[in-house]
Amino acid sequence: MESVILVGIGGAIGSVLRFEFSKLAPFHGIPAGTLAVNIIGSFVFGIIVFLHAPGDILYYLAGIGGPGGFTTFTPFSYETFRMLENHDYYTMGENIVLNGAGSLAGVPLAFLLVPG
After folding, report:
1. Which of 76, 67, 70, 78 is nearest to 110 (CA)?
2. Of 40, 98, 32, 34, which is closest to residue 72 (Cα–Cα)?
3. Where are the domains positioned within the chain?
4. How far is it, in rounded angstroms, from Cα 38 to Cα 96?
5. Of the ranges 22-26, 28-32, 69-73, 111-115, which one carries the lowest mean pLDDT score?
6. How far apart are CA 31 and CA 44, in angstroms?
């Protein structure tokens, strides 16, 4: 039960931080807040899970809960759909590639930086 509470607290903190990041101005039409949270969240998740084992407080609080509440595909999906709806295919493609590649790069980058 303690792990569920820790994940919930981390998720609440992550959600508030995501809300604050959502206020960032778009960068060349790409929602900068969504891009930032997806990349930063993937990196933080990687750092925490490579440094802390399941059962550790930080694993649940800052590894699972925090990035889980911080990152999201909900705004990404909505914003990308709006680009499609507005026939802004180039920006839509950039948005998909940057969010996908940036998020996927976050975890291996964390792995390389964590002493092993």
Report:
1. 67
2. 34
3. 2-113
4. 12
5. 69-73
6. 20
For 51-78, the pLDDT digits (tens) are 998 889 999 999 899 998 999 787 888 8
Q: How confident is the model at residue 21 (pLDDT cuts 50, 70, 90)?
A: very high
28: left (phi over 0), alpha (psi -120 to 50) or beta: left
Locus of tokens 């180039």: 90
Structure tokens that stand for 10 in this block: 């981390």
Over the chain, what HEC string results? CHHHHHHHHHHHHHHHHHHHHCCCCCECCECHHHHHHHHHHHHHHHHHHHHCCCCCHHHHHHHHHHHHHHCCCHHHHHHHHHHHHCCCHHHHHHHHHHHHHHHHHHHHHHHHHCCC
The pTM of this model reads: 0.83
Tell me the mean pLDDT in the region 27-37.
94
